Amino acid sequence: MSKLTVLVLGAAVAALIYGGVFEIKIHLDRLSLLPSRLAALAKNKAAIEQGRVYLTQLKRRGEQLLIQDKKKRLELAVLNVQQDADRLQDLAADTASHPSKLLPQARLLLSSIDAVRDSAENAPVEAVATLKQRSLDAFQAAHKALGSLKELHSDYQALQAEFGRLTGMLEQQIGKLEFSEPGATAGATTGQKDQPKIPLEF
What we know:
Elements (H helix, E strand, L loop, with lengths): L2 H16 L15 H10 L1 H22 L3 H24 L5 H24 L2 H6 L1 H16 L6 H21 L8 H8 L12
């Protein structure tokens, strides 16, 4: 998080407190419970992951507000999709990761795709065309990452449905999107790597 983003968020919180919108109360009688609650929170990896995702979303919203150049907004949104897809795949590959840790990251990935859709609607046509291949690579990574969550069954179905809805809307800006089957599960049994096949039609 950049220093400017921190300063903007800090100023906003301070203004809300000063204006009476936020109120801080200290309950001294509950202070003794703080160590045990912090210890419990440290063991709750799902809560930690959810908190990390929330802070990431807050940071990105601030960045989008501060960046005025529409092409740079789109570039950043595409980069976020790639980063979120890579992290989701890393979490899915980690056998110690509980499904409750995967879902917040999967939803963050979908929100990043939605940010690309929003940025592409407002970006110049030339910028969208320039970022075409990078966008497709990021969406293919997202498709593969979500495919690694098939063991979550109902959650997987809901996530894939949302992915399909968002990418369907994006076709209006980027062109037709077709994804190869995720290799996270198929590759484990066949030993073959997926080759991305994503033709574009304009």
